[in-house]
């Protein structure tokens, strides 16, 4: 009777399953004789995760996968996929169940053999087996009564995601090494090219690999406390990633690394290998309703091996880093659109050499790409000179490119990992294409005829003024074209543009700035440098480095002039002028804009410090050096100039009273100057952005009213709003205010290792990572005193040995 009842109940349940759309909702368990099919889901106990069939918006329809996603987050962020290689066409005809022999299987079209299985063998108690979706995103198969005996779990079967609490490493008994493998592209969870795992050779480091063969990044060995290459992942690191906990375990049974989040609010944290090979920790930002990255390695997108595939170039500066070489087009353009560019590009026109044999070698031509870092697998060839090198390449039909700087390098077949727009690189590469891909001589003739006619035109009018206008237009056209190469101006051009340097915009540490007007739409700022005495060649080298730096929050250098002793720089013009005029002037910036400015400046500096080829220390961060464009987007000005000025910079500093209060203590104390000196100055400026007043402005400034001191104390008392008592700012957001105050206090710590990096500052300000309460910075007391007694800060008596050492270091190369 009882047996009949239960089997009746079971068939009722089964009946329900097939009729009701989702009767399993809010149930986290699948038992024997139950199946998950169609749009049914398992939901974990607290509702964090869901398991079911899904299809991807980016893919063509009719491809369904079974997987786990965040149940509470809009959109569908998949953390695990069972059948990543084998989609099913119809979820209604597919079912996930425990098979008769106790395996966990995905069955399709009522077929007996599973499309996917968890490969559980010798399950002696098949009838008591259950599948359970846990609240940490782990899907567990075990016996009903035995909570510790796990038969299988999705945490052991990584796809591209590593969730908090899961272990990534090696089981020393079985020898199995877990690895995370990227998706192929955003519309296809099948295995892609990139993976991370504990080094299979036995060293204690994680390695990122391309195609399971080429290592393109490693964490560095475990030192006992941290991975040598990523100290921020250290279990002992209390700051500023204090919301994460890390643990590395190496015992007789296993070696693994795991991470966790201290704060439940951060349960929505995941670490992935994304489709472009980056290893990232992402945190769900509730305010922005988006995933924001808390950790990304490698820093340089282009150092991911093969990220752009073959016959393409990679450039760090652009949002989409890859582009095909001239004469080539995208292989699988749809995959390119979905960020999988690993298939690279293919020739538009086959090499004529390959078609016609070596007799017609003339049918192929080369074009040059400058400032590159050369691709892998070059062959070193003996050649007399560059022409000989070219000839050797032309003669071999499988040669695709050559380069000649001292030695002759040639490439056979594929070109991989070619990077362009490399700051300061003098390497060039010559790419071989069918002649028809390059403009032929007929165009040149047209151009020639055009020039003659143009010449006659100019001559026939022959008026000097017209010529001048023409010249100015030419200059302005080159400015307008958005061409990234620097323009070399004649001094006479600049006289014309600035109308004999008549309209002065301001004077900075390095010289006077004038407005230059070319046409109604084009305005530039021309800076006449003072005190620059180095040679033409060195000047040009430095200027070209600066000119190669492109970032939203860094002022763009358009061109330069170097004639005799005259040195001028031409920059984009910022209609809203410098930050100090707005902060300390009569107009009051809203809180929103102030915050936007603080984040923007941090982004610009983070780029200078961390993402350029050679790290650039600004050395002179202050509101006068922050310019604002028409929509108040901040741009850092004068970067790279401290280096350009070299030893003379100390003289500039000593004569600059305007810099008091922004300089880090190490400038005076004799320690070496690092990027943390800029962090200090940024912190001081951030106090001013918050308060809208100069820190050292008022005569009555004392320990009690010195704004940074006030902030540090109020923060500790938990009364951060109190710092805004005097300043009524539109729409101040208390959470942002607290973040900004904390950041500023951390920045001005006397000990530079306590100060965060600019990259961390960006993340803290954006709310992606949290930061502990800062201690009251000791150095503020010194500064507060010094504002009572400015003589304390006498630069004439300061110890400049540190500075001299610093400039000697940055000029090491130039003087060699
Ligand atoms: C299941 O059946 C459908 C329709 O009959 C078919 O298109 C599909 O290929 C089948 N799937 C498998 C895995 O056999
Ligand atoms: C499973 O059982 C078979 C036969 O009893 C045995 O040969 C095999 O070694 C067992 N496998 C495992 C993993 O225990
Ligand atoms: C599992 O249960 C089925 C009936 O539901 C029964 O026929 C079978 O013998 C059971 N198997 C084991 C190993 O207990
Ligand atoms: C639970 O499973 C584990 C691992 O399979 C096993 O070692 C243990 O004896 C089981 N406990 C019970 C009570 O069956
Ligand atoms: C592992 O060893 C092989 C063979 O010695 C070597 O080619 C490979 O580079 C090593 N891998 C790493 C990550 O050191
Ligand atoms: C890491 O450790 C391995 C052996 O454990 C050693 O061969 C290798 O040189 C180390 N790598 C670095 C960068 O120290
Ligand atoms: C990746 O490696 C496999 C096996 O080593 C090889 O067959 C395949 O050609 C490689 N893929 C690419 C794009 O080089
Ligand atoms: C050889 O080159 C000529 C152009 O010079 C081209 O028209 C012809 O198609 C090529 N031969 C083959 C087999 O492609
Ligand atoms: C071209 O170079 C490749 C690689 O060195 C070589 O194998 C091939 O024989 C060469 N072909 C000719 C025609 O010289």
Automatic annotation (TrEMBL):
GO biological process, one term: recognition of pollen
Keyword Signal recorded: yes
UniProt domain Protein kinase: residue ranges: 499-769
Residues annotated as signal peptide: 1-26
Pfam families: B_lectin (PF01453), PAN_2 (PF08276), Pkinase (PF00069), S_locus_glycop (PF00954)
EC number: 2.7.11.1
Designated name of the protein: Receptor-like serine/threonine-protein kinase
A GO CC term attached to the entry: membrane
Binding annotation for ATP: 528
Location relative to the cell: Membrane
Catalytic activity as recorded in UniProt: L-threonyl-[protein] + ATP = O-phospho-L-threonyl-[protein] + ADP + H(+); L-seryl-[protein] + ATP = O-phospho-L-seryl-[protein] + ADP + H(+)
């Amino acid at each position: 009777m009882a047996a009949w009842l239960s089997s009746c109940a079971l068939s009722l349940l089964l009946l329900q399953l097939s009729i009701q759309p989702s009767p399993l909702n809010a149930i986290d368990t699948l038992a024997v004789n139950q199946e998950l099919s169609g749009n049914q889901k398992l939901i974990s106990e607290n509702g964090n995760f869901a398991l079911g069939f899904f299809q991807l918006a980016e893919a063509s329809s009719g491809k369904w996968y079974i997987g786990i996603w965040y149940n509470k987050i809009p959109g569908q962020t998949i953390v695990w996929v069972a059948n990543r290689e084998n989609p099913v066409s119809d979820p209604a005809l597919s079912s996930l169940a425990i098979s008769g022999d106790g395996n966990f299987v995905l069955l399709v079209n009522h077929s007996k053999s599973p499309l996917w299985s968890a490969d559980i063998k010798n399950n002696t108690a098949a009838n008591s087996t259950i599948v359970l979706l846990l609240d940490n995103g782990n899907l567990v198969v075990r016996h009903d009564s035995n909570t510790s005996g796990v038969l299988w779990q999705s945490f052991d079967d990584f796809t591209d995601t590593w969730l908090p609490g899961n272990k990534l490493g090696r089981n020393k008994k079985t020898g199995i090494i877990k690895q995370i493998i990227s998706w192929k592209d955003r519309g296809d969870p099948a295995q892609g090219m990139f993976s991370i795992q504990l080094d299979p050779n036995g060293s204690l480091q994680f390695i990122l690999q391309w195609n399971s063969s080429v290592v393109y990044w490693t964490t560095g060995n475990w030192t006992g406390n941290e991975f040598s290459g990523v100290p921020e992942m250290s279990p002992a690191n209390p700051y500023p990633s204090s919301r994460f906990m890390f643990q590395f375990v190496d015992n007789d049974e296993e070696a693994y690394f795991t991470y966790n989040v201290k704060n439940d609010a951060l349960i929505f944290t995941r670490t992935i290998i994304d489709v472009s090979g980056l290893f990232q920790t992402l945190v769900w930002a509730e305010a922005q309703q988006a995933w924001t990255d808390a950790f990304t390695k490698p820093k340089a997108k282009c150092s991911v091996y093969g990220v752009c595939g073959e016959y393409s170039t990679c450039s760090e500066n652009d949002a989409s880093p890859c582009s095909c070489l001239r004469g080539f087009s995208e292989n699988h353009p749809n995959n390119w659109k979905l960020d999988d560019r690993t298939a690279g590009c293919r020739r538009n026109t086959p090499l004529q050499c390959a078609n016609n044999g070596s007799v017609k070698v003339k049918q192929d031509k080369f074009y040059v790409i400058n400032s590159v870092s050369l691709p892998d697998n070059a062959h070193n060839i003996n050649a007399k000179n560059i022409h000989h090198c070219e000839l050797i390449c032309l003669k071999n039909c499988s040669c695709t490119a050559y380069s000649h700087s001292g030695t002759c390098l040639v490439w056979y077949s594929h070109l991989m990992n070619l990077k362009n727009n490399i700051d300061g690189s003098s390497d060039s590469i010559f790419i071989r294409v069918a002649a028809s891909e390059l403009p032929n001589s007929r165009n040149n003739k047209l151009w020639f005829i055009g020039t003659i006619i143009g010449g006659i035109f100019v001559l026939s009018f022959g008026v000097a003024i017209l010529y001048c206008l023409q010249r100015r237009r030419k200059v302005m056209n080159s400015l307008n074209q958005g061409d990234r190469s620097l323009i070399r101006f004649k001094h006479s051009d600049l006289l014309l543009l600035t109308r004999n340097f008549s309209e002065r915009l301001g004077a900075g540490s390095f010289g006077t700035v004038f407005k230059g007007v070319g046409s109604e739409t084009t305005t530039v700022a021309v800076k006449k440098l003072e005190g620059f005495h180095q040679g033409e060649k060195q000047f040009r080298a430095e200027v070209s480095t600066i000119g190669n730096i492109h970032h939203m929050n860094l002022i763009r250098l358009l061109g330069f002039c170097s004639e005799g002793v005259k040195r001028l720089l031409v920059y984009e013009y910022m209609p809203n002028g410098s930050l100090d005029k707005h902060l300390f002037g009569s107009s009051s910036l809203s809180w929103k804009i102030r915050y936007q400015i603080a984040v923007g400046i941090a982004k610009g500096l983070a780029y200078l410090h961390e993402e350029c080829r050679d790290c650039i220390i600004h050395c002179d961060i202050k509101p006068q050096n922050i310019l604002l464009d028409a929509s108040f987007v901040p741009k850092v000005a004068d970067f790279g100039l401290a280096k350009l000025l070299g030893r003379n910079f100390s003289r500039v500093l000593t004569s600059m009273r305007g810099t008091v209060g922004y300089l880090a203590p190490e400038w005076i104390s004799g320690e070496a100057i690092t990027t943390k000196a800029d962090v200090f100055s940024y912190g001081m400026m951030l106090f001013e952005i918050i308060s809208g007043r100069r820190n050292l402005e008022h005569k009555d400034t004392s320990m009690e009213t010195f704004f940074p001191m006030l902030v540090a104390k109020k923060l500790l008392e938990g009364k951060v709003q109190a710092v805004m008592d005097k300043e009524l700012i539109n729409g101040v957001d208390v959470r942002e205010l607290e973040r900004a105050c904390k950041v500023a206090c951390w920045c001005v710590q006397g000990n530079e290792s306590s100060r965060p990096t600019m990259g961390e500052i960006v993340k803290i300000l954006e709310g992606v990572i949290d930061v502990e309460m800062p201690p009251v910075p000791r150095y503020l007391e010194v500064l507060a005193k010094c504002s009572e007694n400015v003589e304390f800060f006498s630069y004439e008596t300061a110890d400049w040995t540190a500075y001299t050492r610093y400039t000697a270091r940055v000029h090491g190369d130039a003087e060699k």
